[in-house]
Protein backbone atom coordinates (compact mmCIF):
# COMPACT_ATOMS: atom_id res chain seq x y z
CA UNK A 1 0.00 0.00 0.00
CA UNK A 2 1.30 3.49 -0.65
CA UNK A 3 0.54 6.69 1.18
CA UNK A 4 -1.46 8.19 -1.64
CA UNK A 5 -3.95 5.34 -1.23
CA UNK A 6 -4.33 6.12 2.47
CA UNK A 7 -4.94 9.76 1.65
CA UNK A 8 -7.48 8.88 -1.04
CA UNK A 9 -9.44 6.28 0.95
CA UNK A 10 -9.50 8.36 4.12
CA UNK A 11 -10.75 11.32 2.14
CA UNK A 12 -13.64 9.17 0.90
CA UNK A 13 -14.39 7.97 4.42
CA UNK A 14 -14.42 11.48 5.82
CA UNK A 15 -16.48 12.84 2.93
CA UNK A 16 -19.11 10.18 3.66
CA UNK A 17 -19.20 10.92 7.37
CA UNK A 18 -19.16 14.67 6.86
CA UNK A 19 -22.21 14.38 4.63
CA UNK A 20 -24.35 13.00 7.47
CA UNK A 21 -22.73 14.58 10.51
CA UNK A 22 -22.30 18.24 9.67
CA UNK A 23 -19.68 20.63 10.99
CA UNK A 24 -17.19 18.21 12.54
CA UNK A 25 -14.58 17.86 9.78
CA UNK A 26 -11.73 18.42 12.21
CA UNK A 27 -13.03 15.91 14.74
CA UNK A 28 -13.60 13.27 12.05
CA UNK A 29 -10.03 13.73 10.87
CA UNK A 30 -8.70 13.29 14.40
CA UNK A 31 -10.69 10.09 14.81
CA UNK A 32 -9.17 8.73 11.61
CA UNK A 33 -5.73 9.71 12.89
CA UNK A 34 -6.44 7.65 16.02
CA UNK A 35 -7.64 4.68 14.04
CA UNK A 36 -4.52 4.76 11.84
CA UNK A 37 -2.32 5.00 14.94
CA UNK A 38 -4.16 2.07 16.51
CA UNK A 39 -5.26 4.20 19.46
CA UNK A 40 -8.59 4.56 21.23
CA UNK A 41 -10.68 7.72 21.47
CA UNK A 42 -12.61 9.46 24.20
CA UNK A 43 -15.26 11.76 22.71
CA UNK A 44 -16.48 14.43 25.03
CA UNK A 45 -19.52 16.59 24.43
CA UNK A 46 -22.89 17.63 25.78
CA UNK A 47 -25.93 15.49 24.84
CA UNK A 48 -27.33 15.74 21.35
CA UNK A 49 -24.28 16.87 19.37
CA UNK A 50 -24.17 13.67 17.28
CA UNK A 51 -21.44 11.78 19.16
CA UNK A 52 -23.20 8.43 18.82
CA UNK A 53 -24.22 9.16 15.24
CA UNK A 54 -20.64 10.01 14.29
CA UNK A 55 -19.35 6.71 15.66
CA UNK A 56 -22.08 4.70 13.97
CA UNK A 57 -21.20 6.43 10.70
CA UNK A 58 -17.61 5.24 11.01
CA UNK A 59 -18.77 1.65 11.48
CA UNK A 60 -20.97 2.05 8.39
CA UNK A 61 -18.17 3.36 6.16
CA UNK A 62 -15.98 0.43 7.20
CA UNK A 63 -18.79 -1.99 6.35
CA UNK A 64 -18.94 -3.19 9.95
CA UNK A 65 -22.38 -2.17 11.15
CA UNK A 66 -24.29 -5.38 10.79
CA UNK A 67 -21.68 -8.00 10.31
CA UNK A 68 -20.06 -10.77 12.34
CA UNK A 69 -16.67 -12.13 11.31
CA UNK A 70 -15.46 -15.49 12.57
CA UNK A 71 -11.70 -15.45 13.15
CA UNK A 72 -10.00 -18.61 14.47
CA UNK A 73 -13.40 -19.96 15.47
CA UNK A 74 -14.34 -16.91 17.53
CA UNK A 75 -17.17 -14.67 16.31
CA UNK A 76 -16.37 -10.95 16.40
CA UNK A 77 -19.09 -8.45 15.79
CA UNK A 78 -18.35 -5.56 13.47
CA UNK A 79 -19.78 -3.02 15.81
CA UNK A 80 -21.15 -3.06 19.37
CA UNK A 81 -22.62 -0.34 21.44
CA UNK A 82 -22.49 -0.64 25.22
CA UNK A 83 -24.63 1.74 27.19
CA UNK A 84 -22.83 2.30 30.48
CA UNK A 85 -25.12 2.46 33.53
CA UNK A 86 -24.46 2.19 37.27
CA UNK A 87 -25.60 -1.45 37.35
CA UNK A 88 -23.45 -2.62 34.42
CA UNK A 89 -21.09 -5.43 35.50
CA UNK A 90 -17.58 -6.19 34.22
CA UNK A 91 -18.91 -9.45 32.74
CA UNK A 92 -21.45 -7.45 30.70
CA UNK A 93 -18.44 -6.09 28.86
CA UNK A 94 -15.98 -8.94 28.59
CA UNK A 95 -18.27 -11.97 28.82
CA UNK A 96 -18.76 -14.81 31.25
CA UNK A 97 -19.11 -18.58 31.61
CA UNK A 98 -22.68 -19.89 31.54
CA UNK A 99 -23.81 -23.36 32.53
CA UNK A 100 -25.34 -25.45 29.79
CA UNK A 101 -27.64 -28.05 31.42
CA UNK A 102 -27.66 -30.19 28.27
CA UNK A 103 -23.91 -30.70 28.03
CA UNK A 104 -23.45 -30.16 31.78
CA UNK A 105 -20.57 -27.89 31.04
CA UNK A 106 -19.74 -24.25 31.41
CA UNK A 107 -19.57 -22.46 28.08
CA UNK A 108 -18.21 -19.00 27.31
CA UNK A 109 -20.68 -16.27 26.47
CA UNK A 110 -18.62 -13.62 24.73
CA UNK A 111 -19.28 -10.01 25.70
CA UNK A 112 -19.55 -6.98 23.42
CA UNK A 113 -15.79 -6.30 23.49
CA UNK A 114 -15.60 -9.09 20.94
CA UNK A 115 -15.99 -6.52 18.19
CA UNK A 116 -13.98 -4.50 15.71
CA UNK A 117 -15.47 -1.20 16.83
CA UNK A 118 -16.84 -0.73 20.34
CA UNK A 119 -18.90 2.29 21.24
CA UNK A 120 -18.78 2.70 25.02
CA UNK A 121 -21.55 5.21 25.49
CA UNK A 122 -21.47 7.43 28.59
CA UNK A 123 -18.54 5.60 30.10
CA UNK A 124 -18.56 7.78 33.22
CA UNK A 125 -21.92 6.42 34.32
CA UNK A 126 -20.63 2.94 35.22
CA UNK A 127 -18.88 2.12 38.48
CA UNK A 128 -15.06 2.10 38.42
CA UNK A 129 -14.83 -1.70 38.51
CA UNK A 130 -16.80 -1.95 35.27
CA UNK A 131 -14.89 0.90 33.65
CA UNK A 132 -11.67 -0.93 34.48
CA UNK A 133 -12.84 -4.05 32.69
CA UNK A 134 -13.09 -2.10 29.46
CA UNK A 135 -9.92 -0.10 30.04
CA UNK A 136 -7.96 -3.24 30.74
CA UNK A 137 -9.25 -4.89 27.55
CA UNK A 138 -8.26 -1.73 25.64
CA UNK A 139 -4.77 -1.83 27.06
CA UNK A 140 -4.10 -5.54 26.75
CA UNK A 141 -6.15 -6.16 23.60
CA UNK A 142 -7.24 -9.49 25.02
CA UNK A 143 -9.70 -10.78 27.62
CA UNK A 144 -9.84 -13.83 29.82
CA UNK A 145 -13.08 -15.72 30.37
CA UNK A 146 -12.84 -18.68 32.73
CA UNK A 147 -9.37 -20.06 32.05
CA UNK A 148 -9.18 -19.12 28.41
CA UNK A 149 -7.66 -15.93 27.01
CA UNK A 150 -9.00 -14.53 23.77
CA UNK A 151 -7.28 -11.94 21.57
CA UNK A 152 -9.25 -8.84 20.59
CA UNK A 153 -6.73 -7.84 17.94
CA UNK A 154 -5.43 -10.38 15.41
CA UNK A 155 -3.35 -8.36 13.00
CA UNK A 156 -2.38 -11.17 10.65
CA UNK A 157 -6.10 -11.85 10.09
CA UNK A 158 -7.06 -8.23 9.59
CA UNK A 159 -8.87 -7.98 12.94
CA UNK A 160 -8.42 -4.58 14.60
CA UNK A 161 -9.84 -3.36 17.90
CA UNK A 162 -10.99 0.24 18.16
CA UNK A 163 -12.79 1.65 21.19
CA UNK A 164 -14.59 4.96 21.14
CA UNK A 165 -16.00 6.03 24.47
CA UNK A 166 -18.27 8.99 24.97
CA UNK A 167 -18.85 11.11 28.01
CA UNK A 168 -20.72 14.20 28.94
CA UNK A 169 -18.31 16.75 30.43
CA UNK A 170 -20.95 18.56 32.45
CA UNK A 171 -20.88 17.40 36.05
CA UNK A 172 -23.85 15.18 36.72
CA UNK A 173 -25.28 13.22 39.60
CA UNK A 174 -24.19 9.61 39.89
CA UNK A 175 -21.23 9.71 37.54
CA UNK A 176 -17.75 8.33 38.14
CA UNK A 177 -15.16 10.46 36.37
CA UNK A 178 -12.32 8.39 34.91
CA UNK A 179 -9.12 8.85 36.93
CA UNK A 180 -6.16 10.46 35.16
CA UNK A 181 -4.28 7.17 35.02
CA UNK A 182 -7.18 5.59 33.14
CA UNK A 183 -7.59 8.52 30.77
CA UNK A 184 -4.06 7.78 29.65
CA UNK A 185 -5.37 4.65 27.86
CA UNK A 186 -6.99 6.87 25.28
CA UNK A 187 -4.75 8.14 22.52
CA UNK A 188 -6.94 11.21 22.19
CA UNK A 189 -9.64 13.05 23.97
CA UNK A 190 -11.66 14.91 21.37
CA UNK A 191 -14.25 17.57 22.13
CA UNK A 192 -17.40 17.93 20.17
CA UNK A 193 -18.82 21.37 20.68
CA UNK A 194 -22.07 22.81 19.38
CA UNK A 195 -22.29 23.24 15.58
CA UNK A 196 -19.79 25.93 14.57
CA UNK A 197 -22.19 28.37 12.89
CA UNK A 198 -25.82 29.28 12.33
CA UNK A 199 -25.52 28.18 8.71
CA UNK A 200 -24.20 24.72 9.63
CA UNK A 201 -26.84 24.24 12.29
CA UNK A 202 -29.58 25.22 9.84
CA UNK A 203 -28.20 22.61 7.45
CA UNK A 204 -28.43 20.00 10.20
CA UNK A 205 -32.14 20.75 10.49
CA UNK A 206 -32.52 20.67 6.70
CA UNK A 207 -30.81 17.29 6.57
CA UNK A 208 -33.27 15.79 9.03
CA UNK A 209 -36.36 17.73 7.95
CA UNK A 210 -37.87 15.32 5.44
CA UNK A 211 -36.49 12.01 6.65
CA UNK A 212 -37.81 9.34 8.91
CA UNK A 213 -34.54 7.37 9.11
CA UNK A 214 -31.22 8.64 10.39
CA UNK A 215 -29.14 9.91 7.43
CA UNK A 216 -26.11 7.77 8.38
CA UNK A 217 -28.11 4.59 7.75
CA UNK A 218 -27.77 5.14 4.00
CA UNK A 219 -23.96 5.31 4.03
CA UNK A 220 -22.13 2.79 1.85
CA UNK A 221 -18.96 0.95 2.92
CA UNK A 222 -15.77 2.54 1.58
CA UNK A 223 -13.27 -0.16 2.59
CA UNK A 224 -13.17 -3.50 4.34
CA UNK A 225 -11.81 -3.91 7.87
CA UNK A 226 -8.46 -5.59 6.95
CA UNK A 227 -7.56 -2.47 4.98
CA UNK A 228 -7.28 -0.62 8.29
CA UNK A 229 -4.62 -3.02 9.56
CA UNK A 230 -2.65 -2.59 6.33
CA UNK A 231 -2.96 1.17 6.56
CA UNK A 232 -1.75 1.11 10.19
CA UNK A 233 1.32 -0.91 9.16
CA UNK A 234 1.99 1.46 6.27
CA UNK A 235 1.89 4.50 8.55
CA UNK A 236 4.18 2.83 11.06
CA UNK A 237 6.77 1.72 8.53
CA UNK A 238 6.65 4.34 5.78
CA UNK A 239 6.18 7.69 7.48
CA UNK A 240 9.41 9.08 8.89
CA UNK A 241 10.11 11.78 11.47
CA UNK A 242 12.98 14.10 10.46
CA UNK A 243 15.52 14.94 13.16
CA UNK A 244 14.41 18.56 13.60
CA UNK A 245 10.78 17.50 14.09
CA UNK A 246 11.76 14.88 16.65
CA UNK A 247 13.71 17.57 18.46
CA UNK A 248 10.65 19.86 18.30
CA UNK A 249 8.35 17.18 19.73
CA UNK A 250 10.76 16.34 22.52
CA UNK A 251 11.15 20.01 23.44
CA UNK A 252 7.37 20.46 23.45
CA UNK A 253 6.84 17.51 25.77
CA UNK A 254 9.63 18.52 28.14
CA UNK A 255 8.36 22.09 28.31
CA UNK A 256 5.02 20.95 29.72
CA UNK A 257 6.89 19.92 32.89
CA UNK A 258 7.09 22.67 35.49
CA UNK A 259 10.36 21.21 36.85
CA UNK A 260 12.00 21.80 33.48
CA UNK A 261 10.20 24.86 32.16
CA UNK A 262 9.11 27.05 35.04
CA UNK A 263 6.40 29.12 33.30
CA UNK A 264 4.49 25.86 32.71
CA UNK A 265 3.69 25.89 36.44
CA UNK A 266 1.16 28.67 35.76
CA UNK A 267 -0.88 26.16 33.79
CA UNK A 268 0.05 22.63 34.77
CA UNK A 269 0.45 20.83 38.03
CA UNK A 270 1.94 17.89 36.18
CA UNK A 271 3.36 17.77 32.65
CA UNK A 272 3.38 15.10 29.96
CA UNK A 273 5.09 11.72 30.36
CA UNK A 274 7.34 9.98 27.84
CA UNK A 275 4.35 7.78 27.03
CA UNK A 276 2.47 10.90 25.97
CA UNK A 277 5.41 11.79 23.74
CA UNK A 278 5.38 8.37 22.09
CA UNK A 279 1.68 8.78 21.34
CA UNK A 280 2.28 12.28 19.99
CA UNK A 281 4.86 10.96 17.51
CA UNK A 282 2.47 8.21 16.36
CA UNK A 283 -0.45 10.57 15.91
CA UNK A 284 1.67 13.10 14.01
CA UNK A 285 2.78 10.33 11.64
CA UNK A 286 -0.81 9.29 10.94
CA UNK A 287 -1.69 12.93 10.34
CA UNK A 288 1.12 13.18 7.80
CA UNK A 289 -0.20 10.03 6.09
CA UNK A 290 -3.62 11.65 5.72
CA UNK A 291 -1.86 14.38 3.73
CA UNK A 292 -0.26 11.65 1.64
CA UNK A 293 3.16 12.65 2.96
CA UNK A 294 5.94 10.29 4.04
CA UNK A 295 7.52 12.92 6.30
CA UNK A 296 6.11 14.49 9.43
CA UNK A 297 6.06 18.27 9.39
CA UNK A 298 5.47 20.79 12.15
CA UNK A 299 1.86 21.23 11.10
CA UNK A 300 1.15 17.54 11.74
CA UNK A 301 2.41 17.86 15.29
CA UNK A 302 0.41 21.02 15.92
CA UNK A 303 -2.85 19.62 14.58
CA UNK A 304 -2.82 16.65 16.96
CA UNK A 305 -1.04 18.22 19.94
CA UNK A 306 -4.07 19.35 21.94
CA UNK A 307 -6.08 16.16 21.44
CA UNK A 308 -3.18 13.90 22.41
CA UNK A 309 -2.11 15.90 25.46
CA UNK A 310 -5.21 17.53 26.94
CA UNK A 311 -6.27 14.59 29.10
CA UNK A 312 -2.73 13.78 30.25
CA UNK A 313 -1.83 17.19 31.68
CA UNK A 314 -3.02 17.98 35.17
CA UNK A 315 -4.10 21.61 35.17
CA UNK A 316 -2.97 23.94 37.90
CA UNK A 317 -5.61 23.85 40.57
CA UNK A 318 -5.24 27.51 41.54
CA UNK A 319 -5.60 28.76 37.98
CA UNK A 320 -8.56 26.48 37.40
CA UNK A 321 -10.40 27.94 40.35
CA UNK A 322 -9.72 31.45 39.05
CA UNK A 323 -11.29 30.66 35.70
CA UNK A 324 -14.17 28.75 37.24
CA UNK A 325 -15.03 31.75 39.36
CA UNK A 326 -15.79 33.56 36.13
CA UNK A 327 -18.51 31.03 35.50
CA UNK A 328 -17.07 28.67 32.88
CA UNK A 329 -17.12 25.40 34.71
CA UNK A 330 -16.34 22.52 32.40
CA UNK A 331 -14.73 24.73 29.78
CA UNK A 332 -12.21 26.07 32.29
CA UNK A 333 -10.05 22.99 32.05
CA UNK A 334 -9.82 22.95 28.26
CA UNK A 335 -9.18 26.64 28.15
CA UNK A 336 -6.34 26.51 30.64
CA UNK A 337 -4.68 23.60 28.86
CA UNK A 338 -5.03 25.28 25.49
CA UNK A 339 -3.45 28.47 26.80
CA UNK A 340 -0.61 26.54 28.39
CA UNK A 341 0.10 24.61 25.20
CA UNK A 342 -0.04 27.79 23.12
CA UNK A 343 2.57 29.40 25.32
CA UNK A 344 4.78 26.32 25.09
CA UNK A 345 4.46 26.19 21.30
CA UNK A 346 5.56 29.82 21.07
CA UNK A 347 8.57 29.34 23.33
CA UNK A 348 9.76 26.12 21.76
CA UNK A 349 9.59 27.24 18.15
N1 LIG B 1 -24.05 18.20 13.39
C1 LIG B 1 -25.02 17.33 13.13
N2 LIG B 1 -25.18 16.82 11.88
C2 LIG B 1 -26.12 15.93 11.61
N3 LIG B 1 -27.01 15.46 12.52
C3 LIG B 1 -26.91 15.92 13.78
C4 LIG B 1 -25.92 16.87 14.14
N4 LIG B 1 -26.05 17.14 15.45
C5 LIG B 1 -27.06 16.40 15.89
N5 LIG B 1 -27.59 15.63 14.90
C6 LIG B 1 -28.69 14.69 15.04
O1 LIG B 1 -29.19 14.83 16.36
C7 LIG B 1 -29.53 13.58 16.92
C8 LIG B 1 -28.78 13.31 18.20
O2 LIG B 1 -27.52 12.78 17.94
P1 LIG B 1 -26.80 11.69 18.84
O3 LIG B 1 -27.74 10.77 19.45
O4 LIG B 1 -25.72 11.12 17.98
O5 LIG B 1 -26.18 12.63 19.94
P2 LIG B 1 -25.25 12.28 21.15
O6 LIG B 1 -24.19 13.34 21.17
O7 LIG B 1 -24.81 10.87 21.09
O8 LIG B 1 -26.21 12.52 22.37
P3 LIG B 1 -26.20 11.81 23.81
O9 LIG B 1 -25.05 12.41 24.56
O10 LIG B 1 -27.50 12.20 24.37
O11 LIG B 1 -26.06 10.35 23.58
C9 LIG B 1 -29.31 12.55 15.82
O12 LIG B 1 -30.51 12.38 15.13
C10 LIG B 1 -28.27 13.24 14.93
O13 LIG B 1 -28.33 12.76 13.63
MG1 LIG C 1 -25.14 9.25 22.37
Quote the beta fraction: 15-25%
**Cα distance spanning the termini:** 34 Å
Radius of gyration: 21 Å
- Helicity range of the residues? 40-55%
Q: Going by CATH, what is the homologous superfamily of the largest domain?
A: P-loop containing nucleotide triphosphate hydrolases
Protein traits:
2 domains, Rossmann fold, binds adenosine-5'-triphosphate, 349 residues, 12 strands, six-stranded mixed sheet, Helicase, Ruva Protein, domain 3, alpha/beta, binds magnesium ion, two-stranded antiparallel ribbon
Question: Could you please describe the fold and organization of this structure?
Answer:
With 349 residues, the chain is an alpha/beta fold. The protein has two domains: 180 residues, Rossmann fold (3-Layer(aba) Sandwich); 110 residues, Magnesium chelatase subunit I, C-Terminal domain (Helicase, Ruva Protein, domain 3, Orthogonal Bundle). 46% of the residues lie in helices and 18% in strands. The protein has 13 helices and twelve strands. The structure holds adenosine-5'-triphosphate (ATP) and magnesium ion. Adenosine-5'-triphosphate binds next to helix 3 and helix 7.
Amino acid sequence: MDLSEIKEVCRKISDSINSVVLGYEKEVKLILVSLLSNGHVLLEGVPGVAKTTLIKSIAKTLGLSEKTVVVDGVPYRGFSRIQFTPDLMPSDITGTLVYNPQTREFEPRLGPVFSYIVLADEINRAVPRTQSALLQAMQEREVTIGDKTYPLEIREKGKFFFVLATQNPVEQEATYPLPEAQLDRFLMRIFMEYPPSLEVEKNVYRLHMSRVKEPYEDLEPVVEAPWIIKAQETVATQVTVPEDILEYITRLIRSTRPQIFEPAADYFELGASPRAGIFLVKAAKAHAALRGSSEVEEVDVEEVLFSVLNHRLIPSFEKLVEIEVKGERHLARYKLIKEGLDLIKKTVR
